[in-house]
Amino acid sequence: MAAEKIPRFYFSLRSPYSWLAYRELLDQYPDVAAAVEWRPFFEPDRESERMLTERGGSFPYAAMSRAKHLYVLQDVGRIAKERGVDLVWPVDKDPVWEIPHLAYLVALRGGQGPEFIAAAYRARWEEGRNICDRSVIAGIGAGLGLDPAEFAGASDDPRLRAEGVRLLLDIDRDGVFGVPFFVHGFSRFWGLDRLPGFAAHLRARTAPARGLPEPVAGAVGAGKRATDDGHAGGCG
After folding, report:
1. Segment 70-122, tens digit of pLDDT
2. 8-11 and 37-40 beta bridge pairing
3. Which sign does the torsion angle of CA 171, 91, 152, 114 carry?
4. Residue (of 86, 85, 79) closest to 193 by Cα position
5. Could you give the residue ranges of the DSSP H alpha helices within the chain?
6. Whose CA is closest to 45, among 120, 100, 91?
7. Inter-residue contact 214 to 158 (CB < 8 Å)
8. 68, burial (CB in 10 Å: exposed 0-12, middle 13-18, buried 19+)
9. pLDDT band of 60, cuts 50, 70, 90
């Protein structure tokens, strides 16, 4: 399958809508979850932003207004209650999102990408823990049987920084402006409420002739731009 035709799921460990989409994807659409390429979406810190700009890229981000923030708190709480999901709101203090998202690349390299995502989402949204705390990320790494120091120091690794910038460039090229975001060819689906449509779209275009495409091994990265930070069902 051509790279531009590989279905992709852009997820963020920061976003509650992405967390809810992740749960729904695994619970209701496991065939789709197995077929998509999972790609992390994260807001760059100053160093990553500098590197991104030097390579001609940009990150589509607009700060969320207070009114919108309050709405998201209400909306996510409502959705979680409807789904019978226990939610614990974390408190972010000067977060650096490279810390958990580049640690995901370490887990992916160690064959534990899905397990890391599950553990990080659980820590953040079910336990209210700060996943930008290096000790929390180190603990997740240790729980996966991998080197906790590699997880804690992922954002300091120049190679992982470079890989993160490449992923940010892909986000720019793929026109991703918020999460959860689903891409297949020229088709784009943004938001938790678009997941059923994406699943139907993908299934209709891959079945019955050959079924869904095989999942991409070691799935991260290939891929223009828009600007918004989110809405009910999707956020930046």
Report:
1. 999 999 999 999 999 999 999 998 999 999 999 999 999 999 999 999 999 99
2. parallel
3. negative
4. 79
5. 16-28, 30-35, 46-54, 66-82, 98-109, 113-121, 134-143, 148-152, 158-173, 195-206
6. 100
7. no
8. middle
9. confident
CA dihedral sign, ordered 10, 15, 16, 17: negative
User: What token pair was written down for 120?
Assistant: 């990080």
Query: In the chain, how long is the greatest CA-to-CA distance?
Result: 50
Q: List the CATH number of the domain containing 201.
A: 3.40.30.10
Distance CA 151, CA 146 (A): 8
Which domain range does residue 202 map to? Answer: 3-235
Please name which of 139, 107, 112, 106 lies closest in space to residue 124, comparing C-alpha atoms. Answer: 139
For position 63, what pLDDT does the model report? Answer: 76
| Structural domain count, the chain | 1
Quick one: three-class SS letters along 108-160?
A: HHCCCHHHHHHHHHHHHHHCCCCCCCHHHHHHHHHHCCCCHHHHHCHHHCHHH
CA distance 185 to 150: 35
pLDDT (mean) for 146-153? 98
The predicted-structure confidence for 193-235, as pLDDT tens digits, reads as follows 999 999 999 999 886 555 554 443 344 433 333 333 444 356 6
